[in-house]
Amino acid sequence: MEADFDNVLNKAANRYGTTQDKISHVGGFDNIVYEFERDGEPFVLRFTHSSHRTAELIKGEVDFLNYLADNDASVSRAVPSENGELVEVITLKNSYYSVVAFEKAKGVPAGKIKITEQSSDFFQELGQVIGKLHVLAKEYNPPNDWERPQWHEDDFYYSEKYVPSQPVIVEKSKMLIDYLLSLPKDRNSYGLIHADVNLSNISVHNGKITLFDFDDSQYSWFAHDIAVALFFMIMDTGVQEKEPFAHSFLRNFMRGYYKENSLTLFWLEHMPVFLNLHVILCYNIINYDCDLNNLDNWCQRFMNKRTHALENDIPFVDIDLSWIKEG
To answer: Which domains, and CATH codes, for the chain?
Structure first.
């Protein structure tokens, strides 16, 4: 496989106007990520195996991303190859890689910035960026063959597939999904969202935020996107006092958000439901993908008493919405 990927890497470098020795590996989780320069400008080169995403799904991701960029959203645009392709497909014997190049976001990764309960400007800026994304999503019409998935098509929401030996959690996850499927959907509450707003997918330059990595983009409620952002802000910062942090985050985030988009109180009151959905997703992924006896720090913190919390309906964080009435 290593030899196969070396060949893929060489072909990709050629298609994007560079050479293999001039691209450098920078990481990745579900994808393999490299960086390179072209005409003095930095770019990110992402490789996605067909076992993770089909080329059609990635074309849908890129189409939405560049639609956002074309309409002045603060995102990292996908750029064409030397062949004029936004998604290059490089075939192997029985599979393939989809390769996409993106403009590298200016600034520093948000994970390198000290973010606390007092980071009101950062929270407001992020809220405005997400609000802009959501208002643009209302008008987005994808090509038929490239449509992104609905939220409930993600297998990792279904605990019976990943923790079948935990019947209480399996039943609670089924009840949660059934409830969510009964919720209303309309253009003002439901559309294509980022679904993975975390500090690793944000860059900050002179106070301006750029959002990238739309690999998980899916159709869901806009409130779901906000709940995921809150979840990751708490987890990624490692904050000890979760409730005051969540209060500060949501209050300031929504101040920024409302500059671009509106969301009714009904959906904000459903924030705990969407938070619980994302907690179940992460719980299932960690149980499936990770060695539970050798977890990294992030996963250890997340999994600490998590089974007990899920079984006993203990929320990830108590959310205070009293600030809405205060104005």
So the answer is: 12-103 (3.30.200.20), 108-326 (3.90.1200.10)
